[in-house]
Amino acid sequence: MGLLYIGAESIIGSMELRSVYIVRVARRMIVAVAICALAMLTPGCFRGAIDPTLGGLEVQVTFDYKGHYLNHTNCFSSDDKWIVYDTRLGPGTIARSGVIEKVNIRTGEMMVVYRTPNQNEFGPGAGAAGWNPVNDRIVFTRGLLGSNSLKPYGPWRRGGVIVDASDPTKAIHADGRDITPRFTPGALRGGTYGHTWSGDGKWISFTYHDMVLGMLGKAQRKRLDLRTIGVMAPIRAVKVDRDAEGENIDGEMFSVLAVRVNGDMKRQGDEIDRAYNPSWVGVNGYVKPDGSRQKRALAFQGIVLNDESESVAEVFIVDLPDRIDTPGDHGPLQGTPTMRPMPPKGAAQRRLTDNTKRKYPGIQGPLHWLKSSADGKWIAYLAKDDNGASQIHLVSPNGGKSIQLTNNKWALDSPFDWSPGGRYIAYAMDNSIFVTDTKPGETFGRTTRITERTDDDRKPESHAVVWSNRGDMIAFSRRIKHADIRWPQIFIVKLRRK
């Protein structure tokens, strides 16, 4: 592995004494030279199929002194030329960071994709950007405009915004918002975040908090706002009635909740107290036991109770209908003043795992989103082994016994991501990037370190390890120290070929 960023940092450090302009040009040249040098450093690297187990060239892509925060998925543009990120310095700081940017992987050129108007310490804030897998649209989480100390960015006051990277001047509200009774079908009454494009680039999943029930719960001193998940679809735009406070917003897409949650559970079962961190199953869904294809489904983490009435996270799935604008049997899509919005007709949720009796029960490990292989055959999640180390496990969307994929000496330090072909899973562990083979047979579970181990100050960040669309790059971030501040910088591993 060639660590070209070490030389780059020393070159840039000396140049900074001359001219900021020269430094910026130099950064772009260094990135371009570093990536092109791969052809010389690894003979034959552009011939044959990509083999992640051979490792590759590690290259630093960003160098300027601000945050470069990767989302857990969809970081690469559809043509793999750009990486999108927000400018946070760390998790939990979206409110204070109002810029979405992209960087050209080959040249190092950086461009602002979106900048929030009237940004202040209370919002609006913008972050968690994800690129559409088939076009130039980018979705990200943004707080409500006009955020201030009395109405700051928060779980109830945020939503999905879409921009086109080729025309970033036009920002579109993806989901409608209507907090005024009688509410509007297709709009929600709180905040959405964690937006993720479906494999065909048409739908968006999200996690949700309900402001109407949240405020009611405060008044009644009850926990009524239960985190849950939903989807948006391009069925039609949603128009809502304006309110005096400007809290109601029209949406380009039709939004609904996909899962029912219940905060009054008393015993073990398949009811869910909270649902979160959804992920699309397969690029085109999955195949059911009868041979039919379920085109759209979400895997997610759901909180259940064990025999001791303790909360445990398990793997769930919800199959989604083709149309989501027809109310189901449990209530109106838009909810009522005392009931949260209900899923559409045809949405069917199921529990896939029961890990309540393990030594370390349920899903455990670093913050992560469940991820599915491209063909939809497997859903991956983290659970601890008997030694307390988080390992990757696989379960079919049709249910059945889970399979432990990894048996690593160390616990995973980050979320994980499948290669586009569905054979490998990449993640951070022991201050390095690793890949594990999922192909049945001799290589199943074989784990390979593909970057050099660093000291703790330069280890890969714990929030994202993301594969490119063509499978020839893996993006992650490290913190590089400058002027006593450790700045998150984006890196890629350019993978070798056989």
Annotation field: number of helices? 4
Tell me the fraction of residues in β-strands, as a range: 25-35%
Helix/strand/pairing category: mainly beta
Poorly predicted ranges (pLDDT <50, ≥5 residues)? 1-25, 34-46
Terminal CA distance: 16 Å
What Rg do the Cα atoms give?
A: 23 Å
Helix content: under 10%
Rounded average pLDDT? 90
What does this structure look like?
- A hairpin with a 5-residue loop joins strand 29 and strand 30.
- With 498 residues, the protein is mainly beta.
- The strands form nine sheets. A four-stranded antiparallel sheet has the order 1-31-30-29.
- It is 9% helix and 34% strand.
- It contains four helices and 31 strands.
- Helix 1 runs antiparallel to helix 2.
- It starts with a helix and ends with a strand.
Please describe the topology of this protein:
Blueprint: H1 4-15, H2 20-36, H3 38-41, E1 56-60, E2 82-86, E3 99-104, E4 110-115, E5 126-131, E6 137-143, E7 158-164, E8 167-173, E9 176-177, E10 187-188, E11 190-197, E12 204-210, H4 211-220, E13 228-233, E14 254-257, E15 275-280, E16 286-287, E17 293-294, E18 297-305, E19 311-319, E20 348-351, E21 371-372, E22 379-384, E23 390-395, E24 403-404, E25 416-418, E26 424-429, E27 432-437, E28 447-449, E29 466-467, E30 473-482, E31 485-495
Parallel strand pairs: 9-10
Antiparallel strand pairs: 1-31, 2-3, 3-4, 5-6, 6-7, 7-8, 11-12, 12-13, 13-14, 15-18, 16-17, 18-19, 19-20, 21-22, 22-23, 23-24, 25-26, 26-27, 27-28, 29-30, 30-31
